[in-house]
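hey so u asked for the seq, here:
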Amino acid sequence: MFSTVITITPRASEDWQSAAMTTTSLHVKPGTEWAAVLGRAAERAPDAFGTDRLHNLVDGTWRPIGDPETLVSPVDGSRLTGLPKVSAGEAQHAVLASAAAHREWATTPVAERKARVTAAVEALADARDDLALLLAWEIGKPWKLACADVDRALDGVRWYVEEIDAMLGERTPLDGPVSNIASWNYPMSVLVHAELVQLLAGNAVIAKTPSQGGATCLTLAHALMAREGLPVTLLSGGGAELSSVLVRSPEIGALAFVGGRSNGGKVAAGLLDTGKRHMLEQEGLNAWGIWEFSDWDGLAAHLKKGFEYGKQRCTAYPRYVVQRELVDQFLATYLPVVQSLRFGHPLAVEHDDDELPTLDFGPVISAGKATELRDRVSDAMHRGAVPLWRGSLADGRFIAGQDTSAYVAPAALLSPGGASALMHSEPFGPVDTIVVVDSEAELLAQMNASNGALVASLACDDEAKAHRLAREVQAFKVGINKPRSRGDRAEPFGGRGASWLGCFVGGELLVQAVTQGPENELLFGNFPEHSRYPAAI
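ran it, structure tokens below
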């Protein structure tokens, strides 16, 4: 439907926080306006959408329950629709209904489960462009990246459909439905993908819509899934109010959580005495170490790709740990990359028939998050960090007069102080920190600053040395002269240290995590009593 061809040449500016207007007359491409996209979604699933509000999916029907709270687009500050906030009592009713559906679905033959999941995947594929445009408006993803989120979900589930018989073997579904509480950044390729695999494995599923974004996309997706007879439940509400129900209810068979360490810690505390199967993916400060290295052209390509979606993903690399003797060469490579980044309104075109723009990123998830990032940069500088680069919103591609309060220009800081939040935690935005080290021991200490991470990488000409150092990096996956990602299909995924609690996922590990195997089975993952890692990650 759409492709990407526009090229933008950014310009430097000293005022990185100032909003500016472009010299061209930009406007939202016809057919991609929010009203048009929402209208097409409502036509596909009229029962799921009310007047100025979304509905909740309970016991196979869409219900106008809960008090709606206005959703605002980070793209331009416009009002999108109402997100209903259900009560704990309403959520408990939904859990009981899902448990009943689970008992029936668990006895459904695998062949029928595969047929229904396949039908749902094809229905989602037919709605692919509208799902991607909903993501563009709701969470600010540029068109190409929004399409990739949808496509990865569907392609991944197709692979599982082909592999599920061998993966299941004699394994059986859990005793109750899987409860899914996920972050807003990858609604399709993380949340919907996981749900469809959980369904293939014989479990009913419950999903909580993220409060910050993605609810409309998820509403359409779940409407199409439910239409094919899949036992799915979709609820909206505050985490504090619904957590006790979606985490601790005895009917829940397992919990899958994706989010930050603060909320993850609260969820983990709620699981302590339940004995429930769980998969808790939490943040970590993913680091790229550079030691005795010379392939700067190769690194430049990785640096560019690393800024996709403004580093708002769990496998982004916001920390570079650089050998002192290489700092000048690293900066000669890094600064042109960060200065060339393209960002702005994901759906703005100059002429009606223009393709949607090719951008590295759009807004961050909210104006509040943008303010938090700017405050963190200011705080780090106050504590001694050196600003190597601070871009400007004047470099962005915006419609004249649009609200740009959720946009953050890229920034890079050298040596944030130990008391700075940016020294130890993930910014989850287009802000990088660079730390200079003088020894291998210091390199490893700085790469392990956050007590565990999901991914890390080492740039080193001597691969034998790199592999030796990698063994001491506290990350689930460590790349040698390349980045690591969540992975697709058969590739496992997890975290070390505080970045992950419970079962690992990916490939057959995801199926094992949501099914029952032999008695006293020792699953792969991080557990209070043991940690077990796959042989090759």
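The chain has two domains: 27-252, 287-450. Confidence is low (pLDDT under 50) at residues 1-23.
lmk if thats what u needed
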